[in-house]
Amino acid sequence: MHGEQGVRGGTLAALSAGAAALATTFAVAPAQAQVLVPPPSDPGVTEAPPAASEPTQPAPGAQTGRPTPGLPAEYAARSSPLQGNFRFDARLAWFPRLPTLRATFPEDFIGSNYEGASGTIASPGRGQFVAVGAEVGLSISRRWTVPLVGFAIGGAVGGYPATKTSLDGVPFTIEPWTAGYVYMQAIGLEYRARSRRWMLEAGLRFGVGITWMKTRIAVGGDEYTGSAFGISPALKGDVAICRRLDPEQRLCGFVAPALYEFGLLNGASFGLRWEVGA
Amino acid sequence: MSPRRALALALTLAAASALGGCGVESGPAVDRFGPDGDATLPKRRGSVVVEGCALDGYQADVLAGAAARAVLQEIVLVCPTLDEHGAVAPQDDATRATLGALVAKLRAQGYRVLLAIGARDTDGSTPAPAPLARRFDDESYWTASAQAVVELAPLADGIELALPPMATSARGRLTAWTRSIAGQIRPARRLGLFAPPSYTEPSDIPYGGTWDVAALAPSLDRVRLMTVDYTDPAGPAGPTTDPGWAVQVLATARAKAPGASFDLTLPLYGWDYSRGGAAALSYLDATALAQVHGVAPTRLPIGEPTFSYVDSDGAAHTVVYDDALSLTRALLAWDTATVSADVGVTYYGLGAEDPALFPRLASGRGGAP
User: Fold this and answer.
1) CA-to-CA distance for B217 and B179, rounded, in angstroms?
2) Banded pLDDT at B20 (limits 50, 70, 90)
3) Does the ipTM surpass 0.95?
C-alpha cells in the first residue's frame, strides 16, 4: 500500500512540478498582463506611467466600461468589464461524516451470483484530505466574479481505524486511509471588497464531491480487494482574505465551509490560494 | 526566497502530498459487530438441532435456561431413522415412550418439538445415494415408509425430513411421497425439510436437486436450508459456514419457492482437519486442544477462529470452529434488509456451542452481554 502511494506520489509529483512551473510563468508575466488592467481608480494599484503622447487622465466613461469614441485602442481594451482570473490552491478538506459508500464486488470474485453486484455499505466516519485545486473565473465587474470551472484533487491524511461492515451478508472491511477525493466545480458567484492592498472575497460555489477508498471482502477463508465510492452534490461557501502582491497577483487565505457535501453542514476546507488576473 | 517562489514550492509540496496520499491505519477497527460493538441483533425465529433421542446433562441445562428460551422456539431431535424395510426406528414401545416423555418435558418448557427422520439400515450403516433412491421406486416401500412416518407424527409437534443424500432419480417419487405425508399429518402436525444448500440452479451440490423445493413448498411448513459444511470435510481446511454464501443460497431457494418459510442454518460445531480427513469437534474441544498445544487461535477473514497443531503422531492438523463472536457476526451480517425478518435461524448441534453464545444472543446485542 505504501509502495503504491510512493509510485503514485512520484508520478504525480512530476505533474505538480509542471503546475508550479505554470504558476511561475504567471509570476513573471505581469508586464504583459497589465495591458488589460482597467484605468486605475484604486490608489493601491501601481502602474507604469503613460507614454507622453497618451492622455494623462482616465478617459470619461472608462469606469462604466463603455469605450468613449476617439479613445486609443489600449484604453478601450482596459475598459472591458469581463476579465479572466486563475486560481491555484492547496487545501485541507475536513469532513466529519463521509457518505455511505457504493461498494462493488471485484470481477475475480468467486461465485456467479456476485459478479457485477454492488450495494451500499456504511460510512467509514470522518475524512480529512490534503488537496490541490485550480479554478478559472470571470470578473464581471469590480465587485463581482463568476468562478467558472474548477477542480480539487487530494488524498487522505492522518490516521484512521478500519471499519467493519457487511453487504449482502458478506463481511466488508473499509480502509479509510486509502481514500481519495475530487471536487469538481460547476459554477459560482463571488463578491469582492477592496481596501488598499487587501481584498475580501465571499461567495458560493456549486459542484460535485467524490470520494473513493479500498475495501477488503471476506469470502470463506480468503480475502479480496475491492473498492467503494461516494458521490454528492456540493454547495460550498468561500471566504478569503487576500493580500495583493502586485496588480495581477494575490495571495489569499481561505475557508470554504461545506454547506452541503456528503451531508448538510459537513465540514470545511482551509487553505492558501494564489490568484492571478482580475 | 521570494514570496512567489515560496508559494510555488508550497503548492508543489502540497500537490505531491495530496496526490500521493498520507493516510495511515491507526487504532482498533470500528466494529459494530465486535466484542465492544453496539449493533442490535435482528429478532429471528430460532430452532436448535439435537442429534440423538436423548439430552445429556449439559444440553438439558442449556435448554432449561432463560437465555436459550429467549432465543429458541423449536427443538429438532434428529432421532428416528428409516430403515431398508420402510420402518421407522425406534419401534419398541419403551423407547418410544421415553422419547414421548422427553418431548413432553420440552413442551412444558415452552418449546415446539419436531422429530427429524434420517435413514439408517438395520446394520447401522447409512445407505448410499443410489440404493436409497431405488427404494422409493418400490411401491411397497414407498407406502410402508410413508405410513410409518405418519404414525410417528403424533409423538411430537411435527416431522422434519432429514434423509441423507439421494440420487436425483428419486425426485419425482420423493415429491409424491412427501405430499402424501403432508396430506395426512397437516395441519394438526407440522412438516419440514432439511434442504441441501444449493447456491445455483441447477444445484451445485451433489444430489442437491433431489428435493423439488418449488413443488414441495405448498406442502411444507418449513424449509431449513442446511447452510453448514461450506468447506468439504474431505478437502483442505476452511470455514464451516459463510454468511454471504448463505444469503445467496437463500436467494436461489426463494427464486424457486417465493412463498415458502425458510430457515438458514448456523453450525455450533467445528472441524479438525488432517491428512486422514476431518472430525467434528465442539467449541470446548477446540479451545482445549489450543491450550494443550500452546497455540493462540487467529481468525479467518470471515471471523471463524482457527489454529494449527501437530499431534503426537506427527500429523499436522488445522482446526476451524465457531464461537459466540463469529456466529454473532454472521447473524448481524444478515440484517433485515439483506435477509428478511421472516427467515429464521436453525442452530445445528446443541452441546457443541460456545457457552457464551445463547447469553449473547439473548442480550439482543452484537457486543458482549
Assistant:
1) 10
2) low
3) no
Contact indicator for A164, B30 with CB cutoff of 8 Å = yes
Contact B245 A129 (CB under 8 A): no
According to the model, what pLDDT value does residue A19 have?
44
CB proximity list for B306: less than 8 A, separation 6 or greater: B237, B297, B298, B299, B300, B318, B319, B320, B321
CA distance B173 to B84: 16
| Residue of A2, A7, A16 for testing the chain B interface, max B β-carbons within 10 Å | A16
Give how far Cα B330 sits from Cα of A103, B11, B246, B266, B300, Å.
Answer: 19, 48, 10, 9, 13
Chain B nearest CA to A100, separation (Å): 15
Query: Is A119 exposed, middle or buried, given 0-12, 13-18 or 19+ CB atoms closer than 10 A?
Result: middle
- The CA–CA distances, whole Å, from A238 to A202, A203, B4 equal 5, 5, 23
Identify whether the C-beta of residue B114 lies closer than 8 Å to the C-beta of residue B149: no
Residues 6+ apart with CB under 8 A from B110: B69
**What is the distance of C-alpha B275 from the center of its chain?**
25
pTM of the model: 0.80
**Residues in contact with A216: Cβ distance below 8 Å, sequence separation at least 6, in sequence order:** A172, A173, A175, A223, A224, A225, A226, B301
pLDDT in tens, A130-144: 999 999 999 999 899
Count helices and strands in chain B by DSSP H and E runs: 12, 16
To the nearest 5 percent, what fractions of chain A are helix, strand and coil? 15, 55, 30
Residues A33-81 have pLDDT tens digits of 333 333 444 444 444 444 444 444 444 444 444 444 554 454 444 455 6
**B62 Cβ contact partners less than 8 Å away, ≥ 6 residues apart:** B68, B350, B351, B358
Residue B25: which H helix or E strand, with range?
Answer: strand B22-25
Candidates A113, A151, A216: best to mutate against B (most CBs of B within 10 A) is: A113
Residue B154: what pLDDT? Answer: 95
Nearest-10 crossing angle of helices B324-333, B243-256: 40
3-class secondary structure, A262: coil
pLDDT, position B10: 66
